[in-house]
Amino acid sequence: MGKFFTSVHLKEDLCKGCINCIKRCPTQAIRVRNGKAVITKEFCIDCGECIRICPHHAKEATYDSPEVMKQFEYTIALPAPSLYGQFNHLDDINIILTALKKMGFDDVFEVSGAAELVSEISRKYVEEHKEQWPIISTACPTVVRLIQVRFPNLIEHLLPISAPVDLAASLARQKAMEKTGLPSEKIGIIFISPCPAKVTAVKSPIGIEKSDIDAVLAMKEVYPLLLPLMMQSIDDVEELKTSGRIGISWGGTGGEAGGLLSDSYLAADGIENVIRVLEDLEDCKLDQLEFIELNACAGGCVGGVLTVENPYAAKVKLKRLRKYLPVACSHLDDKELKEAYWTGEVQYEPVFNLGKSMKESISKMSRVEELCERFPGLDCGSCGAPTCKALAEDIVRGVAKEQDCIHILRDYIHKLSDELSKIDIKK
Amino acid sequence: MMNDKIKLCYDVPADDFTRAGEASSNVKSKLKMMGVNPEIIRKVAIAMYEGEINMVIHAFGGTIDVVITPDEIEMVLKDDGPGIENIELAMQAGYSTAPDNIRSLGFGAGMGLPNMKKYTDELNIDSTVGVGTTVTMKVKMNER
């Protein structure tokens, strides 16, 4: 898989070439060219904002079909805790887990169970690494990707611990191999995801070499399959759950930070807010904090673009579900869990660089400034770029031209017709 | 035509805390696109932000001129404010003349000028009481 795999992609036949997505994209990764949106893969962080905003449903996420289960002899479902917030009147998580088995999975392994282990490991890590404070959470792959391309100074603050879903996948695989004696390739670890970024995190992981997840299903596709099976499950519920309050809380913003049992944290969500926090972090304005939890989606994972329920309603449901649960059900019990730590270094990817050398960059940047002076500054998007400045950068990068600006083009045509009429008079 | 330097000019409005930091954040994003060493960007951003905040708190706003060349980044912060009475004292960490209402906002910790010195390679303050202050800061591109 290439370095710049992205899950979000365009359905060209549905795209009308409007400017909704180019305006919404937080990294300005989209342009409209020849009447269709084009995503620059290097700039895309898979936040899913364009999927949310597109009125023509022309943007979609790549994920697997439930059919993928047939490829494996033994399958394990990894439900994200946000899944539990999708259903009305649910008071027992075991009903969902039982229904997943009825759907055809041989076993389930709760991501929230692994989340409790991650919380325990993180608690220790944060305490022992004061020099790295404030430590930034790495559970949201969109945030990690954003930092990798735009906030090089913050890479050293990243929490080098696997996201709960990755740890869940490793543990589920070990468990299945022990239980069934099957070789690894016959076991399918299948994640039920609230967001497209998790698909990307599986196909081109950051921090770990290879993900143990074999396939990713969209929560919104599993939802209608689960509903009738949940009704059937009510009378013969299996006791399957392995998580308590801490694990379930990971589904919404503040859950991860709360699991650290410290007050010295900040938890932000929504990609624009995340960017503001990262900017302040970079300027050392938040140095007094121990931990920073960041989620690209409003509300946290419950706000993922592949979920069904309103994120805030889902959060209330999670709160209700966890009310009478123990604080945590999964514990390390002195186990080391080496698989929970990142094995690779995160490298800065300067994808937004204008030039190869400082000299070239200075020259190009001053040309951008010149062009911006000439453009009307309306940020109308008619040229296909989200702002006049973005068009100027495109021109300097050699992928657009000045007359893509309709205002410049109009002036040019006026001038041309003036010239032509002068020729007429002379005759 | 090859340009070997970029000049950027910013107005810093007085008493507007919501806009304080706009100029430094703008310079920061430009330096990032130019592929400047992240450590240098950090120094410029912090030093310039401190200067900007100072102009908002103490000096009824002013202007900032930034010149970027392959060798260095120069920031000139100019204001027509009250001037600094005792520069030596102002340079001491923890010394502040900020009024209580500003301190209650979390500013005025007396780290402005010391931070500007710490994060730049050259700092020059030219101030006349009752006339104004010009702060010139330089960060070298190749020094860490």
TrEMBL record, chain A:
Q: Where is the 4Fe-4S domain?
A: 363-422
Entry's Gene Ontology molecular function annotations: 4 iron, 4 sulfur cluster binding; metal ion binding
Specify the 4Fe-4S ferredoxin-type domain's residue ranges: 6-34, 35-64
InterPro entries, sorted: 4Fe-4S_dom (IPR007202), 4Fe4S_Fe-S-bd (IPR017896), 4Fe4S_Fe_S_CS (IPR017900), Cytosolic_Fe-S_CAF (IPR050340), Fe_hydrogenase (IPR009016), Fe_hydrogenase_lsu_C (IPR004108)
User: What superkingdom heads the lineage?
Assistant: Bacteria
Give the keywords, sorted.
4Fe-4S, Iron, Iron-sulfur, Metal-binding
Q: Which Pfam families match?
A: Fe_hyd_lg_C, Fer4_10, FeS
Protein name, UniProt field: 4Fe-4S dicluster domain-containing protein
Q: Which organism is it from?
A: Mobilitalea sibirica
